[in-house]
Amino acid sequence: MLKALPAGLVAAPGGALVGRHATASPAPFPQPVVAASRPVLGWGPPMVDQTLDVRFTDVSVPGLGSVTTRTYNGTIPGPTLRVRAGHTLRLTHINGLPPNPPHTGESHEPHHANSFNLHTHGMHVSPSGNADNVLREFAPRTADEAAAGAAEPTYVTTVDVPADHPAGTYWYHPHLHGSTAEQIVGGMAGVIVVEGDVDDVPQIRAAADVVVCISELKIKDGRVPAFTSGRWVAGIPSTFTVNGAVNPTLTLRPGEVQRWRLVAATAFTALRLTITGDRGDLPMHQIAQDGVTFARPVALTEVGLVMGNRADVLVRGGTPGSYTLRAAGLPGPLMTIQVTGEPIEPPMELPVTLPQGRPFLDEREVADPDADREVVFHADSGVFTGAFPNAFRMLGTHATPAADPGGDLTHDKAYGLFDPDYTNHTLRLGTVERWTVRSDETVPAFNHPFHLHTNQILLTHRNGERLDPPVWHDTVGLAGGAPGQSVTFLVRYEDFSGRTVAHCHQLHHEDLGMMQTVEYVPGS
């Protein structure tokens, strides 16, 4: 269920939020529809039982117009799924998309744009079977089946959330190799909220709980064009929406605190977020990164999110006036904040301490310091013929083998590229290991976010400098430069065995081969 709102906010139809004391009358701030856990008759834990219907839909995007795109349930973003640790997500997927056109090109080209699956990004859940298994395919009807009037196919995802799962903000999106980027830039994304201990902190419980899902859309002539060339990304400008609207307006009373769940549901663009206004800036008090609560709030004037990141922040209204949430390098605001109405006196308080979401790992726990893993993001041009000539590779200690190990590796068509039949990393449950990941890009704007499925990573060093304190992530950005950035992290492989992936979360690169297979196996 939605939390009760403080005096400055009321719920408008459709879940939107609007200030009770606003002097202007902007459109209500949009919020996605919410699906929450409910008791299950008979045996079993409470469950979120939700259908996700995927088909081409004509969506009205405020501030942009009508867009024809693939959606979850006809909206951008899809419904927010609110679940508690120990509960279950049961998602029924309907594929109402047209048949896939034949694919005759290389495996490292976009393909099967009308097939999908589901990834619960950042969650520590099983990667196997019908759970968070990104190696499944939810295919549409074939042309023959559609012509014969066969029913649209359905698929089921069942995710059992562990009883000790960290409370926080996560998200879901399709993750089928070859089709991920095109689907996410059409708006296929949704937020997952795992409720728990941090929500019971009095100052957080008193704050409005606001989803701020930032999507990056690629729209041309009112629709998302097919991913047909390597320059597709650069050739179409991005449109950024918040909860499916261009620059919506949120109302905040002076002295009021709101909790914003910032979600970077972007495919290609990293976001450096600030709140600026004519009367000064509003600080953001970050309380969580990628779903894991900090030990205490951190006051920031800028919050950095790469593609796939989330940050929970507390924002308190200050001097009345108009403010904007902006990302460096983007031409316009992501959303407008009107600080207006009757002040809250005394101002709502911010918490001093928080229930830390995960304990830190100790470097002395590393199982074998001489067996650290290394990943290097690297691109070679002119490797393939056709519209996608470049090879996007993951090199390092466990790169996919070359087709011709004695030949020219810069033009090898297999070296370091995703091969679903090759296991790059075998990871034993119960062990702690150290990874170093770096980019050899020379252009700072080129960012290769590293994302490991199933287990959170504890970032200990960036560019060789130790972080104090370290920070839990599931996705970490690596900008290019001279040299490109590097990170070092610790990770403990826990609870779940099975095959899944690690990859670049610049989704154009993932679809073109910048991904590796990992297999979690029982410990010795």
From TrEMBL:
Keywords: Metal-binding, Oxidoreductase. Gene3D superfamilies: Cupredoxins - blue copper proteins (2.60.40.420). Residues 114-196, 234-328, 417-521 form the Plastocyanin-like domain. The keyword Oxidoreductase applies. Coiled coil: none annotated. CDD domains: CuRO_1_Tth-MCO_like. InterPro entries: Cu-oxidase-like_N (IPR011707), Cu-oxidase_2nd (IPR001117), Cu-oxidase_C (IPR011706), Cu-oxidase_fam (IPR045087), Cu_oxidase_Cu_BS (IPR002355), Cupredoxin (IPR008972). This is Multicopper oxidase domain-containing protein.
